[in-house]
């Protein structure tokens, strides 16, 4: 079995989680991560045993901070088969020419435009579209959440139109500089980018999105109203969601009334960094009336895209031909079991 050599460019919220997830797979290994400054995250990466690659101009700062480096960022590009670019939105664009020059494959994240890679990725919807590709893009956390639930429903019943409101977390938990801290902020550029982003993978889907930034850091919450291709009943949709990969049904009646209890549940599951990789749907909040479906779902923005990145590596590096097998393999390694 071939082992893919994976480099992580940008060891922040997403990058550190992708590094940990890749380390748990038996067909890929982390050959290094990049850091621009000798922060606590750089020290933590070193403690976890990751080789750290830095910009040439930062070598001295890392030396002064007594954090060992393995070389420059460009050395990592030469060493890896594939780079998972987890730099902040729009920074990946700057690196594309460097990946091309080094002849290394690269996965971009949802902060980059679809056009940068030319192909976007979701494990269930279009695993094979990235097969052997040099570049792909794992869509954003919200887009991943919408595709995880809408794609299986569309396959079984067809979704004619979807109307979604995304209640967005204002900042990640580790981020103290963003707001609002006591307000709700509507996104007035309509429709928001989430719908077109879903269409980068499901171009046939009519989807309309609005968004509100809320003063919370835990999770995003979506309200979804979908016009189905035919009349259905609630039990049928629940059956589809129950068997959909990386979707977890919870019940308000069992005490999970908000994103706070979901995060408590994630801590109880004992996952790495208390992550909830699955999209969480309130079972008692799913309702079908005629051909109109209503439901709520919560998205753990820091982690739902992590298993998708692992599967994307498998598709681009031609490690596993079958999407279902890759998803099962990733889920087993990350402790994602269907309940
Ligand atoms: P982050 O700010 O937490 O981490 C980015 C990391 O990249 C930091 O460690 C930063 O030091 C490093 N970095 C900055 N400039 C760099 C450069 N020039 N070269 C190398 N490294 C550099 O960001 P994040 O939240 O992990 O987001 C990364 C990507 O993932 C973005 O495209 C974002 O849109 C996407 N994404 C974020 C979330 C989320 O909720 N955090 C969810 C899904 C997707």
Brief summary:
The chain has 339 residues and is α/β, with parallel strands linked by helices. The chain is built from 13 helices and 16 strands. The longest helix is centred in the middle third of the chain and has 16 residues.
Task: Describe this structure as you would to a colleague.
It is a single chain. With 339 residues, the chain is an alpha/beta fold. It has two domains: 4-139 and 305-334, NAD(P)-binding Rossmann-like Domain (Rossmann fold, 3-Layer(aba) Sandwich); 141-299, Dihydrodipicolinate Reductase, domain 2 (2-Layer Sandwich). It is built from 13 helices and 16 strands. The strands form two sheets. Strands 4-3-2-1-5-6-8-7 form an eight-stranded parallel sheet, with helices on both faces. Helix 1 (13-23) crosses helix 12 (305-316) and helix 12 crosses helix 13. The two termini are 31 Å apart. The mean pLDDT is 97. Nicotinamide-adenine-dinucleotide binds next to helix 1.
